[in-house]
Structures are given as C-alpha cells and as structure tokens.
Amino acid sequence: MSFARVRAVAGKELTVLWSSPVPYVVGALFQAVLAALFVDQLHAREQAVVQPLFPLAGFLLLLTVPIITMRSFAEEARTGTLDLLQAAPVPPSPLVAGKWLAGWLTTLAMLLPTGVLVVIVRWLGHPDRGPVIAGYVGLALLAATLTGVGVLASSLTSSQPVAAMVAVFGLLLLWFSNIGSGTLNAGDVLAHFSLSERLRSFAGGAIDTSDVGFLVAAVVVTLAVTALVVDSRRLR
Amino acid sequence: MRSRLVAVLLVLVAGVAIDVVGSRTRRLYDLTAQHSVSLTHETKSVVRQVHHKVKVTVFLRRDEPGRVEAATLLARYHRLNRHITFKVLDPSESPGELHRLGVDPLAGGMAAVAGDRVERAASVAEQDVTGAIVRLLRHKSPTVCFATGHGEADPNATLPEGVAQLADLLRQNGYHVATTDLLARPVVPAACDALLMARPTAPLGPAAAELSRWLAADGRALFLLDPESTVDVNPVLAPYKLRVERGIVFEKDPGSVLSGDPTAPIVHTYSTANPLVRRLAPTYFPGVEEVDVDESGHVPGLTVSRLADTSNASFLSRDPQRGDFQLGRDLPGPVTVGAAADLSAFRGGTVHRTRVVAWGDADFATNAYLGQAGNSRLLVQALDWLTIDEDLVTLSANLAADRPISLTTARHRESLLLSAALVPALWLLAGAAVWLARRRR
C-alpha cells in the first residue's frame, strides 16, 4: 500500500469535507451538548475530576462520527465517481485507508475544543493529569474504531442517510453489548466486543494494552472488510 | 480476486491475532497519581480465590458522583476473575432489588451475592468490595460486641437514648451482634472481632486493664465517648496516641450547626485519606468533646489519623455554662472530634494489628440521631475498617485523592457560557467563514 496514495486520498477527502458545513455544525453541536452534560456532572460531584468527560464524549461520538463518514463511499457511489476511481488498476486499500484517515483526523479535530473543559476543571481545582492523558488516548482510539465502522457502513450503500443509520445502530449495538453479560450464556463474548467496556479503563485513568489491542484490531478488521466490499463492487 | 480475498483474510486473521495477543499479554499502565485504578496485590490474591459466581450489585443514582469510578473498579474485578459479575443500578429505579438484597434505600451501597449468602457494604471502594468478597469466601460474619455493665448505651433499648437501631443496622450489614458485660466478667470474649463501647457512665475499674490487654493483643475497638460522661478512658487510649480532652465543642459557624444550637456541630469535611470517612456525607454530633492526637514522639508501626474536625470558628469550651471563648482556658478550633489509630507489626511471619477508633460523642449513634445525615454510614464504615482482615486488605488501598472544587453559581454560569456557548459559536463562525470564502471564489 502506497502511503503517498493514502495521503493524496486523505488530503482530497479533508478538503471536500471541510468545505462542507457538516464538520462545523456537527462539531458545534457535539461540543455544546458535551459541555452542558459535563459541567452539570462537575456541579454534582464538586470534585476536580475529568473522568466523566470520556464516557459522555465516547457516547456522543457514536452519534456524530457516522455523520462525518457517511459520505465517504456512499456519495461517490451515488454520483458515479467511485466507478471512475476504481477504473484505475490500483488496489482499493489506499482509497479505503485515505478515507478512513480523513474521517479520523476530522473526528480528532472535533475533539480538540473539548480541551476547554479540561481547562475549566484546571481553573476550578487541581485535577489529576493521568486520567486526562489516558482518557484522550482512549477517545482517539475509539474514534479510530468508530470511523472504521462508519466507513464500512458507507461502503455498503449509495445512500448517505442509510449509511449513517446503519453505522449508528451498529455502533449502539457494540456500545451496549455488555448489558446482558451477567445473564446471557454468551455474555462474556458480548462484553468483549462492548465499546463502552473498552473505554472504561481509559476513562478511569489507565491504559490497558488489551483495550488498545482490541481497538486497533477493530480498525484493521473494519478497513479490511471495507476493502473487500469496495473491491467486490468494482468486479460487478 | 482470489489473491485480494486471501490478503483481506490475512488482515482479518491479523486483526483477531492482535486482539487475542493483546488480551493474553495484557498490561495495565495506571496513569493516576495515586494508582487508584490498580487493584492492590491483596485484592488480587482474594479475587483469585473466587471459584464460584459472585454477583455484585451497586446502587448509585445516575447523577451520583462515583458511578463511573465504581463501574471502572468493578470491571477490574471482573476482568481479573470472570466469576465476579456486577451491575450498577439506580436505587430509585430498582426498589425491588434494593429490598431483595437488603440495602438501605437512603444510604445506597453495594451487595455481593454468592449462592444464598449476601454481604453488604455502605460504599463502593476497593476495600468495601474486597471486604465483602472476603466475608463471602470465609462464610463468616464478624462479631461486634457491645460492652455493657458500666452504664453504656443499651443495644436492646428502643428509647431515643438507646442504640437498638445501630445494632439492627450492623446486622443488616452482615455483622453478628453480641453483648458482653465487662462488669460481671472483665474479659472480652474471643468471639468478639470488635468491641463497641458507647458512652460508659460508671468507672471502668478492672475492665480498663482488660481493655488495654485485649487491645494490645490485636484487639479492635470503637469508643463512643461523651461530654456528659466522667469516665476516664485515656489510660486505655494512651498507647495509641489518642486522648480525650474534656469540655464541649461550641460551633460558631452558622453553616455548621443544626437549628442554631452551637453545641451540635455538623462536620462537613474530612481531611484524611482514611477509608473510614471516605465519601461520607456531613455528620451531626449533638454535644461532642475533643479527641486529640498526641503528635509527639514516634511509635514504630503506629499510624494515627484525625478523622473529623469542626470549623475554624469553633472552640472547645472548658466551661459549658459559658458560650463564649475564654482565652487561656478554652481551646480554639478546629477541634478534632474523631480519630483512628492503627498499630501494626510483622512478627513470626504474620501481621499483628490493633485498631482503635474514638469519637467524642455517643449521641450521634443513638436511636434519636442515627438516621441523621451521614451518621449511620460513619458507624458502618468505622466497623468495616476495624474488622476487615488486614492480612488481605490494606489500610491505604490506592485511594484517589480528594480534589474539591467550589463551583459557585457564577462560576457554573461562566463555565457553561464558555464551553457550551462560546466555543460552539466560534466553531460555527469558522464554518461560516469557510462558506463565505468559497462563495467569493
């Protein structure tokens, strides 16, 4: 896989994405809702802790990342430009990786303003730095996984709203898959795939290598499946 | 096509391999200042002994501080041993579960269930969870012996000055409750895991020597003293650097008294990391004297902590008839009203530990005041701290530091304005600027 091609695809995707109102509107709403919920938590706890920020941000990302990624393949399929791209004798992996990279960087950019909330906690008290670092590492990895799922959903359809809905419902299932872990026979397996479970250690202030491994593996798998889907479309 | 399919399959296998290898060779990098996410070695050794299902149910309101931390903590137990499962419920949404597990609906807390046995704890810290699991594993509940014979508060008395409600509360929390008459037979029974002496009013006589002997032999005792009592327990407390200072505390901070009574202070803050007062609501002491800590000299193995102080505006009056501060006679605040001592030594391959907790008031534990503020929780946490087997659970179980903030209404509004309005507005403005620039082109 040529990284120059990945960079070129990502650059083009970023230009298109940031020329549209989507990241600005989604980013503003994300920040406003997250800030309102977090400041409320801060008020209830009366403690200079940032830990509640990360589960809240993680859940809101489930709803926002699919909106960022919904156009990546669906729009190209609808307008027919995907066929043009695929006419070139190159494998689909740089295309998939480039679109994923653009989506991930956009999501990371949306997370940047949440730093204001950390500054506020710092202004009000003396928070522990460890959970801030671990939490943002966790959010970055979670964002990578969510973007992978979003890009995969987008490759399955030529309709952007359908792509977003498929991704949101898929991610909600993954987020809440630990709920029945105590009662179902397959509970442990379901809990293993739970994204909320995976974010838990990061949010608490620890980096667990098994969580890092799972989230990285999830990115690899979703991108591989996306490449397969895109490739099969070319063969049709 | 086939080669691409193989390549994709290889990537899929690689993805699963990363996950499997990550799970098998997991390492935890705890970045918190107090390593509060890591379980202690003692907890790990307990958790490895669990071979049957243990279901932990935690009752915390959705908006209650500590919910995320409790779930994170319990997830660590679950990951270490899959026999331990947990759920976090909102008590207002699960009254049936609360009733079934016998958890106090007002105080909340947790219950650990193994088969038909239930162990409860008032809070959800590592020590509480591990303590509950230890009790489940041992099939034995600790016995708290109420000392009688010297005019102490009666654990069977349902009158306002009795402590029957305290005895019931302890039973609900998995304790066996017994009484021991130290006047009739000044020997603390071997079955007592902790002794509770609440407001003795008659001189202890030979019982004082027995208490000293018993404490020195790894005893655990909770003393609830009172300004009204003239009994001198200082000889018993002295080896542990604790001392009762006679008098009565007058609280002059209007925000720290109930119904305007200056002799009934409310303690808001606990400036110690001792789990005995961790996450404790304000506590109310109707008539309290000082429990001072002797900070001179060093006794090997002895750790003494001041548990609760009254406000800076309070003072200890030597003359309760006068409500004003007399320089040179009274002691200025803050006044320590509760203290704990832990004397530990490692001898003959085992840990020997004596623990003593003393409060300058007994009224707060009586039927009249037990249900007020955090009083009941304080007493359960005190006995948990006294009776947990310290071979398995350490005193300072990686506790997260207290990091209080004062979020006044103005600061709350400013924080919201900045983060929920100004920053999103700037973000939208950036979008509008890009849109305008594109239109101009």
* CATH class value of the largest domain in chain B: Alpha Beta
Largest sheet of chain A: none
Strand order of the largest sheet of chain B: 7-6-8-9-20-19-16
Number of strand elements of chain A? 1
Largest sheet of chain B: 7 strands, mixed
User: SSE order of chain B in H/E notation?
Assistant: HEHEHEHEEHEHEEHEHEEEEEEEEEEEHH
* Count of individual helical segments of chain A: 12
Total domain units of chain B: 2
Give the radius of gyration of chain B.
Answer: 26 Å
Q: DSSP strand (E) fraction of chain B?
A: 15-25%
Topology pattern of chain A, helix = H, strand = E: HHHHHHHHHHHEH
Shape of chain B: globular
- Proportion in helices of chain B: 25-40%
Strand content of chain A: under 5%
Low-confidence stretches of chain B: 390-397
Distance between the termini of chain A: 23 Å
Question: Can you describe what's shown?
Answer:
With 236 residues, chain A is mainly alpha-helical. Helices cover 80% and strands 1% of the residues of chain A. Chain A is globular. The model of chain A has no long low-confidence stretch (mean pLDDT 88). Chain B has 10 helices and 20 strands. Chain B has helices at 2-24, 41-47, 67-80, 95-101, 126-138, 164-172, 206-216, 234-237, 375-387, 409-440, and strands at 28-30, 54-59, 84-89, 109-114, 117-121, 143-148, 176-181, 194-198, 220-224, 242-245, 248-250, 257-258, 261-267, 283-284, 290-293, 302-309, 315-317, 331-332, 336-347, 350-359. In chain B, the strands form 5 sheets. A 7-stranded mixed beta sheet of chain B has the order 7-6-8-9-20-19-16, with helices on both faces. A 4-stranded mixed beta sheet of chain B has the order 3-2-4-5. In chain B, helix 3 links the parallel strand 2 (54-59) and strand 3 (84-89). At the A-B interface, helix 2, helix 7, helix 8, helix 11 and strand 1 of A face helix 1, strand 1, helix 3, strand 3 and helix 10 of B. Strand 1 of chain A pairs antiparallel with strand 1 of chain B, so a sheet runs across the interface.
